[in-house]
Amino acid sequence: MISWLKNHRLISLLLLACVAGLAWWGWNGHKDDKKNVPPVKADNRILSEGIVFPARYAQMVMPIDGMVGEILVSEGDAVKQGQPLIRLVRQDYQARLGSAAADVARAEAAVEQARVNLADAMREFNRQLKLQEAGANSRQQMDQARTTVERSRAALSQAEAELLTQQNKRAEAAGIFEKTELRAPMSGTVAFLDVKVGEHALLGTVLVRIADESAWVVRSDDLTELVIAKVRVGDTVTLSFDGIPGLEIPGKVKTIRPYGEKKRGDITYTVTIAPERWDERLRWMMTSQIAIVPKL
Fold this sequence. Notes:
- Among the domains are: 47-56 and 213-293, Elongation Factor Tu (Ef-tu), domain 3, CATH 2.40.30.170; 91-179.
- α2 (91-133) runs antiparallel to α3.
- The protein has helices at residues 2-36, 91-133, 139-178, and strands at 46-61, 66-71, 78-79, 84-88, 181-183, 188-193, 200-201, 206-224, 236-241, 248-256, 261-263, 266-275, 287-293.
- It is elongated and about 115 Å long.
- The strands form 2 sheets. It has a 6-stranded antiparallel beta barrel.
- The chain is 40% helix and 32% strand.
- It is of the alpha+beta class.
- It contains 3 helices and 13 strands; from the N terminus they run αββββααβββββββββ.
């Protein structure tokens, strides 16, 4: 029995020694590992989300209401500045323009007739003057000639005023008629066309968007006042895109709008990023993740 107790005590001491040795080795090894871990560099990037836009684009609306009569382009078409895109049904507007032109023609004829009448009245007045000098006419004839001249002058002034009024009405009708046709304000590609023949084009509704696809930008409007002071024009940017995993494009901060707007409860500033290259798979309105590295 005594021999067994001695053996048991010896085994327990050996086990405790092993445990102590393992603990010491683990603690010292952990310290060595800490010494070999490289320092972690702080990530000072400013992250935000943006949208892909053409650097130049136009959004067009019909300046007057009306039913669409012709659509002269399709999505994807290349167009030139001034090229017609959409025409409303124009018969009523054309009839108004024709009526206004006819009114101008009548007013012009009235002015011409008034000038002829005034010239006749002046000739008669001058004739009566000569007769008066010769004592060959009466005072009544002279007064009548003078009154005719005055009335002819008043009639001419009235006719000229009426002509000006009719010309203004014709110009107004021509301006309205011109607005029945939507023209491209710039050269580019039709990226959006949201109307069909026979539909009613509401005033102020965007019907066509044209993009100059030669240059693109990414625009972000969610940089708050807490971070915008760290951003400078020319800062390096990395762009990634939700729709094209793995694609990264370097860029630079191009502009920072100086005016802040209240959005989502914060004051935010719009920042425009100019990519250093582009990828033809990218499209207008795609979402981009923006990582700005501010200059220290």
